[in-house]
Amino acid sequence: MFDGIGFMELLIIAVLALIVLGPERLPTAVRSISRTLGSIKRMASSVKSELESELKLEQLHSDLKKAENKGLKDLSPDLQNSLDELKSAAQSVNRPYQESSDTPASASPAPAGSASVSDTPAASDAKAESTGDAKSKES
């Protein structure tokens, strides 16, 4: 970060900051500067990752267009890898929706040898109490 600044320059800056700000305000100034630099770094990292993902998406899009133009035959290895990556991404996106529509959560059987929640003694007691409460409220 400080490639062009040597140790002596940093020492001079620190001494000047101590003289100008004083020992009481210097720690708060250093904290606020470090927070600002941290937020700038996080923002730059975020922008960089977004740009990389957009460039990758654009590259995949152009590879898909090339593959369509070639008729999905005799593709170069790069185009074939991009096409395979797109297919796997599409399958991973569709997979959760297919699983939820194929097997409803209420229809899934309990594993063999395990007791269901309604078979446990605590559930039976709670069920008895709830029916007893309902009967007492009716009368």
TrEMBL record:
Residue intervals passing through the bilayer: none
Subcellular location: Cell membrane; Membrane
Main location: membrane
Membrane topology: Single-pass membrane protein
Biased composition range(s): Polar residues: 78-99
Skewed-composition ranges (Low complexity): 100-118
Keywords: Cell membrane, Membrane, Protein transport, Translocation, Transmembrane, Transmembrane helix, Transport
Compositionally biased intervals (Basic and acidic residues): 126-139
Short name of one Pfam family: TatA_B_E
Gene Ontology molecular function, alphabetical: protein transmembrane transporter activity
GO (cellular component) term, any one: TAT protein transport complex
Sequence segments annotated as region (Disordered): 68-139
Any GO BP: protein transport by the Tat complex
Known function: Part of the twin-arginine translocation (Tat) system that transports large folded proteins containing a characteristic twin-arginine motif in their signal peptide across membranes. Together with TatC, TatB is part of a receptor directly interacting with Tat signal peptides. TatB may form an oligomeric binding site that transiently accommodates folded Tat precursor proteins before their translocation.
Subunit structure: The Tat system comprises two distinct complexes: a TatABC complex, containing multiple copies of TatA, TatB and TatC subunits, and a separate TatA complex, containing only TatA subunits. Substrates initially bind to the TatABC complex, which probably triggers association of the separate TatA complex to form the active translocon.
Family: Belongs to the TatB family.
Protein name per UniProt: Sec-independent protein translocase protein TatB
Gene name, Swiss-Prot/TrEMBL: tatB
